[in-house]
## 1
Amino acid sequence: MHTIFVCSDAVGETANTVVQATIRQFNASQVQVKRFGSIRTEDEVRSVVEEASKVNGFIAYTLVLPELREMMRQEAIRLSVNAIDIMGPMMQAFIDTFKDSPKRKVGLLYQLDEQYYQRVEAVEFTVSCDDGKDPNAMRHAHIVLLGPSRTSKTPLSIYLAHKGNKVANYPLVPEVKPPAIIYELDPKKLIGLTMNPDHLVRIRTERLKAVGLPFGAKYATEERVKEELAFAMKLYRELGCQVIDVSEKAIEETAGLILADRT
C-alpha cells in the first residue's frame, strides 16, 4: 500500500482535491491518503515528514505561514521525502506579479463570508428542486439539468450547488410529457445529459442489484435505455440546449464543461 500525506494549517481540502485529481490519472487502487490538518508547530511538521519517510510516501501540503513552509522544505530534504508545495508557488506568483503581500492567515477559504451564505442558499434550493420536485422553481435556477434516470443529475446538481449555483434537475421519461416551463427557459440555462447505452445499462443493472430488484426488469434493458436516450436527444434538439455525454466523465469534469460556458 502506497501512502500520500496531505498536510495543512487549515483543513487540507485544497491539497486533498489536487491529490485526488492526481490519483485518478493512475491505476492507483493501492494508494491511501492520510490527512493532517490544523498544523501549527514545527514539531508537527517534523512528525509528518518522519512518518512519510518511514513508509516511503510523499507529502502534498498547503502551509500559509512561511516558517512552517520552510520547516517542511528542510525536513523533506533531510529525510529525502518528496514534498509538494501546493500553495506556495501560487502565492509567490501573486506577490511577484501584483506586488502585493499575503495576509498569512490560515483558513481564510472557509471563513463565513457572503460567498459562503450564497453556497448554502444554492444547496438548499438545489435539494428542494431535485428530481423534478418543483418545476416552477426552474425559473429561478441558474442551471437546469435534464436527462434520463442514472445520468448523474443529482450528484452533479449538488456539486454545482457547492460552487454557488442554484440547480434544478428533471428526469426524462418517454411516457411523461416534460413540463411546459422547460420550453420557456433560456436554452443557455439548460443542460442535456446523455450516456453511452451500454454504460447506462451497466449502471442501471447495478442499481437494480443494490435495491434487490430482478435483473431482468425493463428499466435496465438495452431496448428501454435506447428508447429513453432517443427521447432525450429529440427533446434536446427541440430545446437547442447544450448536450454533454457523461459516460466516462467524473462529476468534476462535467461540471467544468458546464461552468466554462458561464464565465
Note: The first helix runs from residue 13 to 23.
## 2
Amino acid sequence: MKKTIAAILAGALCLTALTACGGSKTDSAAADSSSAAAGDDKTITVGATPTPHAEILNAAKDALKAEGYTLNVVEFTDYVQPNTALVDGDLDANYFQHTPYLNNFNKENGTDLAAAFDMHYEPFGIYAGKTASIEELKDGASIAIPNDGSNETRALLLLQDAGLIKLKDGIDPTSDATKLDITENPKNLDIQEIAAEQLPRSLADVDLAVINGNYALQADLNAAEDSLITENPDYAKVYVNVVACRSGEENSDKIQALKKALQSDDVKKYVDETYKGAVVTVF
C-alpha cells in the first residue's frame, strides 16, 4: 500500500551526488557525440540518460526544428560520462542530473559546469523486493540504496522518514551521508550500497530497494503508483533535474533555444501524460 511521507525539509538546495558507477554510451551516442566539438551552430548536442530525459528531449525536437535547430540526443547509461563529455566539449548541454549532484560533481572534479535552467523532479520511492511491505520486514532484512553521495543521503533520509533507521543529527539533503551515519537500526537492517543503475535488478535479491526515479521508470516502476513510500513533494523538489552547460554559456543562442523548446506547453503536457506523477515539471 502506497504511503506519502510528510517530511520536513531543512536546509538549502545543494548537492552531493545523483549517481552512478561506470557505464558507456549507446552505440548511436558514440557515433553522434562529435557535433558539439565540430562547432555546428545549428545542431544542439545534448547528453541524457534514456528515461525520462532523452524521451523528453525528443519531444522537443519539432519545436527546435521550427527555430532552425537540429537536436542531437546522445544517450548515456550512467551519471558520470555525461558531465565528462560536457567538460570535454563533446556536448552543448546535458540533461540527467539534479542540482545537488551537479554541485558535488563540480566540487569533486574541479569543474565549472552550470545549471542553465530547471526542468523537473522525480520522487524517490521504496520498492518491494522479497518482502511485500515495510511492516513485514524481519530482523536483518536487506535494503539496497544508491551508493553515490547525494542519492545515498536522499535514500537514507527516506528510510529515516519511514521509521526504519535514525541518522545522526545534522543530516539533511545538503549532507554527504553514508550508512556509517546511522545511529539507530532497531531491525538490524542490512543496508547495501549499490550503483544506482543496478538497483532495479537488485530487487529480486533484497527485501526492499530505494530506487532513483529515472532508473525506476526504465524498469517499468512508477514512484507515484508502485512504491511503498514516496517522498513528500516539498522534499523531492530539492532535487530538481536541470539542463546543464559549461559556465558562461547559459545565455547562448543554443541554450536559450533549448530552454524555450523544453519549457513549452507541449513538453509539459507530454511529461504529465506520459509519466503520470513519476516526473513532475517545475516550469
Note: The mean pLDDT is 87.
